[in-house]
Amino acid sequence: MIRTNLQIGTMHGDISMLSVAAGELASTVRHLAGEVRALSAKELRSWGIRGQDALPVRWDAAAPELVDDGESAQDGAEPVSLAGQFGSILTTFEAVGSRRLIILGRAGAGKTVLAHRLILDLIEDSGAPHTGPVPVLFSLSDWDPETDLASWLTGRLVRDFPFLDTKDSTTGKRLAEVFVDRGLVLPVLDGFDELPEMRYRDAVKQISALDLPLVVTSRPEQYAEAARRVRPIGGAAAVQLEDLTLDQAQRYLRQNTSKLRAPAWDAVFRQLRTAPEEPTSRSVASVLTTPLMVMLTRTVYNDDGPNRDPRELLDIARFPTTTVLQDHLLDAYLASVYTRQAPGPRNGRRPNWTPDQARRWLGHLATHLQNRKTHDLTWWQVPSTLNRQTRILFTTAIVTSAVGFVTGLVAGLLTGMVDGIVHGFWDGLRDGILTGIALGPATGLASGLINERQFSQWHSRRQPERLHLRAPRQDRRPRSRSAPLRKLASEFNNGLLFGLALGLVFGSVFGPGYGLALGSALGIVLGTANFVVSALGDTYDPHATDPWTLLNLDRKITLIRMAIAVILIGTVFAVMTLYRFGPELERNFALYVPALLPFALLAGVVRLTFSAWGTWVMFVRLWLPLTRRLPWRPKLFIEDAHERGVLRTAGSAYQFRHARLRDRLAQWHRN
Fold first, then answer.
1. Helix or strand (DSSP H, E) at 467
2. How far does the chain reach from its first CA to its final CA, in angstroms?
3. Contact 433/445 with Cβ under 8 angstroms?
4. What angle do CA 134, 138, 141 make, to 5 degrees?
5. Alpha helix segments (H runs only) across 373-481
6. Distance (Å, rounded) from C-alpha 270 to C-alpha 396?
7. Residues 410-437: pLDDT tens digits?
8. Phi and psi of 647, rounded to 5°?
9. Alpha-carbon distances of 542 from 23, 457, 539, 550, 632, rounded to whole Å
């Protein structure tokens, strides 16, 4: 293979030989740039920002104590002005010689929106095809600074852009790792203020040590505290977003409303200017200084929304404080977007959810995210909104209902009929009914306990899976040995424990010897089957670029595992029953086969409870709707919330449009 030096954008550090062919690498850079550009453009559109049609957010250089003194952050000997406005963020960034910029602004000031604008400008400025480092947004709320930052960035790239999981056969590194090592990505680290204060020191040290151009967004108070405790991020300039003026807010709101609504806005701003010291004027003026609140106001009092009059904002009895007014806008925003028809065609599949329903269900999800201290909403983590006792009891109830009183009872009757051939019909029928009654609850409880054991071990990493029924490809990534081995051992133990539990149940009916033999055989077979199928499974799929693709993939692998369990359990029951009852059954094989089938199906149902898709079905499709915490069609509801702009996508996860919205919904839900 011909090796080629490929410089992409500004080269930092020594020039080195890349182990990936230059053409392939450049093609991957262009692919990543296209994906990132589409995501950022979609984010800006969701806020109603098209082209330069945006609030005139302005900024200036931050206070000197927030800038690193150890390195020169700007080109040239003379300081360069960093002041600018929304359309000139690229100019400000390029004025920083180190290409390391901190964007500071209070909550709702527009930091994330500005970061997306910079991402688009960087990609478009590079020309077509894109040849510069690709700016990628990373949410720092999910980073633990005890984890190496470069490794975390690599993992996030793989999660959100699976085509970067291709392995370089020469170095053994994934393309995502190559991109981080070679400076082919420009990290845009959003939400430094979301990190715990106790982690500021580690975070500042790691970000400073990252030898890459980068952008960091934060609220000023939190970043100032980190700079005071440690120091500012190394080599980075800092700008601080300014509040909007009343003129800017009025101009924007008038431009986005009809002439009929304009007089009402004029009355509001006339009151703010003529009586600025009145409490109501101070509250409204304070709210309208942040882009987030102005955009919410635009949505709430837009022409095609509910029949609202913006002059109600001046009602001091309803809105005595700024906080009450902000909460009103957040609540009214949700009511407004759910009063309108969602964008896109309505084919009868999507119900018309009311604002109250949406608030209740979104509040449950927001509380779940707050409890987990994350912004990422993934379908396989939603069951963790329930406590441990609920998960165990409901799993027991599900398996008892589906297996114990249906499959178990039928199996018991058929087993009794088979047993009756040898020892008399009535004795066999009695044993069969006892088997069915014992089988359901005992099997259900065993499933619940084992499933919770698995959930507790893997809940923070439990993810949908993909099945490999072929030898590993040459371009697969190198895998850590310890974690997969621990999971394989856990899967084997789960199968062994469940088999022994079934053996105890059957031992209570057919005698301890038979129960011990059956339980041991089932445990070994189930444990081995779990081990083998888990070894074939993987949490990666190069085509899984959205949450519901992962759900479909996990459903497929779960059904495959259920089929394997059915075959294995049926075989073991056949062998053990022949061993137990001898050649008499060979003369009645037509009755013997249907007697074994329900027991085999039992194993399939239990196998379902051990999967991510199975827990989604049990808890998210059944229990949470039964308790009115989610709708009966949660997937459609989440998709609908995304289309309405309440949620946004972040790779394989959803996020609330803004942390303030998430926190307000969680507060409402708790109260």
1. strand 466-467
2. 65
3. no
4. 170
5. 388-399, 409-423, 425-458
6. 64
7. 545 555 555 554 454 445 445 555 555 5
8. -115, 160
9. 20, 26, 10, 11, 30
What are residue 60's DSSP bridge partners? 240
Q: What is the CA radius of gyration of the chain?
A: 30
**Class of 22-241 in CATH:** alpha beta
* Single-letter residue type at 651: G
Q: Which of 97, 103, 130 is nearest to 12 (CA)?
A: 97
Q: Which residues pair with 100 in a beta bridge?
A: 214
Handedness of CA 407, 412, 417, 421 (dihedral sign): positive
DSSP string, 296-330: HHHHHT-TTSSS--GGGGG-TTT--SHHHHHHHHH
> Given a cut of 60, is residue 71 above it in pLDDT?
no
For 477-519, how does the pLDDT look when each residue is reduced to its tens digit (9 = 90+)? 444 444 445 555 555 566 556 666 666 655 555 566 666 666 6
3-state SS, residue 230: coil
The backbone torsions φ and ψ at residue 109, rounded to the nearest 5 degrees and listed phi first, read: -75, -15
Report DSSP letters for 13-45, one per residue. S-----SS-HHHHHHHHHHHHHHHHHHHHHHHH
Going by pLDDT thresholds of 50, 70 and 90, the confidence category of residue 47 is confident
Q: What is the mean pLDDT of the chain?
A: 76
Residue ranges matching CATH 3.40.50.300 in the chain: 22-241
Tell me what pLDDT residue 161 has: 85
* Residue 589: band (very low, low, confident or very high) from pLDDT cuts 50, 70, 90: low
* Structure token pair of residue 184: 């082919």
What pLDDT does residue 428 have? 46
